[in-house]
Write a structure and sequence with these properties.
Chains A, B: Keywords: Amino-acid biosynthesis, Aromatic amino acid biosynthesis, Lyase, Phenylalanine biosynthesis. Two copies of one chain form a homodimer. In chain A, 30% of the residues lie in helices and 34% in strands. Chain A has nine helices and 15 strands. Chain A has helices at residues 12-20, 32-40, 60-68, 102-107, 109-115, 127-136, 148-154, 203-214, 246-258, and strands at residues 2-6, 25-29, 46-53, 57-58, 74-81, 85-88, 97-100, 120-123, 142-146, 157-160, 170-176, 187-197, 220-227, 235-242, 262-273. In chain A, a hairpin with a 3-residue loop joins β3 and β4 (57-58). The longest helix of chain A has 13 residues, at 246-258. Chain A is elongated and about 65 Å long.
């Protein structure tokens, strides 16, 4: 089975793809949008994309594309722990430059300041690119902040372990596809994600939309506004709902429609936690 | 009066700083966090930071810092139209590489594909950096996507005018300071921005918080969740409120407190629109 993920090899997305589809043929794409388009073009059976990080928040490229352009759905959610490693071609090496994605550099800042106060920080497009770049320049005094799987992928040594500042760091990934995949992981909850567009931008409309869920005792786990891209101050709203009472949710959604609120289902999925690797 | 903005010169922030404080001594800082720290350290009387763009959404670096670390407030809001120009050292020049911030590259993509289909796109940290870099390499076949003010600042020619895809593109900027500055602009509304932390993450709590405003007829113009950075699924909420009925807002906030909801006032400000330059 063909699976698309955000490459290159050794990225957190790649780690999730391997944990979820150990028998799959995995194809890395350069951007999140390309990963989603791979599924739309039927190049793959499933696409895996990041949706939210516990520190950085939502991944707008994913949510905006699903709302504005795509008619594809999340059929499973994977929660991946994020642990950053400092990688180099050999242990004990002099390090003068450290490469990584800006968020990983920020997460490893305290460790780097203590251990390599003289090192220059250099931004790359992703953590896995940084690891690949360091592996390609063994003669240089370079290191990368990247996931453990990037060390294996590019033959690098872990010279600093779990260097991220925040111990609780997780990323939610969605599997986009036709129907729920058959995973050998244990699901621990079921959720539905909706995008609502209100008939006007009165606060009353949002309040009424939330009422439809609240009085039925339906738990929302997240609410977020994103710009409609029409004018400043116009938004659509992303709601994540605990899907324990599906019949009640159907009623609530029907009620929204009669109020003139339009909705798009972004996903209906089981949530799986991936163990640390 | 000393004013801090997000540099370098020629950035949209610089444009806002010049329009707002035409007599001010303007100091450009390298990052949004540095701009806010300049005010905290009393290096400046006011700091100007971007908070939200009509296409990209909230500027998380600004809002997260104000919520998590700062005890400073917005005392005015400026709304700046965002128009992107294609700049080069001379008209009619061969262009092989186009530099800009990723969002500006995305906004100018259609124009570039039509006019310069062979050009390579290169990412820079900001639009103004791109303009400065192009000005520093007049012998190279380079162009930058940047604001009009960057052309003036770095002596570049506008070779493509208003090339952004979305005609309606605005950015909200906040002026952080002790008290409302005396601006020679016309205010057109008054708003209050609050950050709420709910006693637990039950949806009921958010619904009750919104109720306190809704039944008093207080208009919310925006609601957004941001990660508390504690665990996946724990958020704080940013509410923008129309501040017409300030006494009612005081009652609503008092009611929140009795419900165990804690709040932080991020700003209490008049909103000004900056004319296109």
């Amino acid at each position: 089975m063909r699976i698309a993920y955000l490459g290159p090899k050794g990225s957190f997305s790649h780690q999730v793809a391997k944990a979820t589809f150990p028998q799959g043929n995995l194809y890395g794409y350069a951007t999140i949008t390309e990963v989603m388009k791979a599924y739309e073009r039927k190049e793959v059976a499933y696409s895996i994309v990041p949706v939210e990080n516990s520190i950085e928040g939502s991944v707008h490229e994913t949510l905006d594309y699903l709302f504005h352009q795509a008619s594809i759905h999340a059929v499973a959610e994977l929660v991946q722990p994020i642990k950053q490693q400092l990688l180099a071609t050999e242990k004990g090496k002099r390090i003068e430059k450290i490469f990584s994605h800006p968020q990983a550099l920020a997460q490893g800042k305290r460790y780097v300041e203590q251990q390599y106060p003289q090192a220059q920080l250099e931004v790359t497009a992703s953590t896995a690119y940084a690891a690949r770049f360091v592996a390609e320049h063994p003669e240089q005094p370079y290191a990368a902040i990247a996931p453990r799987s990037a060390a294996k992928e590019y033959g690098l040594e872990i010279i600093g372990q779990d260097i991220q500042e925040m111990p609780e760091n997780y990323t939610r990934f969605w599997i986009l596809g036709e129907s729920s995949p058959n995973l050998s992981l244990l699901a621990h909850e079921k959720k539905i994600s909706l995008a609502l567009t209100l008939p006007d931008n009165l606060p009353g409309a949002l309040y009424k939309a939330l009422s439809a869920f609240a009085w039925r005792g339906i738990d929302l786990t997240k609410i977020e506004s994103r710009p409609l891209k029409t004018a400043l101050g116009e938004y659509f709203f992303i709601l994540d709902i605990h899907a324990e009472k599906e019949a009640l949710i159907d009623f609530a959604i029907e009620e929204l429609t009669t109020m003139g609120i339009t909705y798009k289902i972004l996903g209906n999925y089981e949530v799986y936690r991936i163990k640390e690797q």
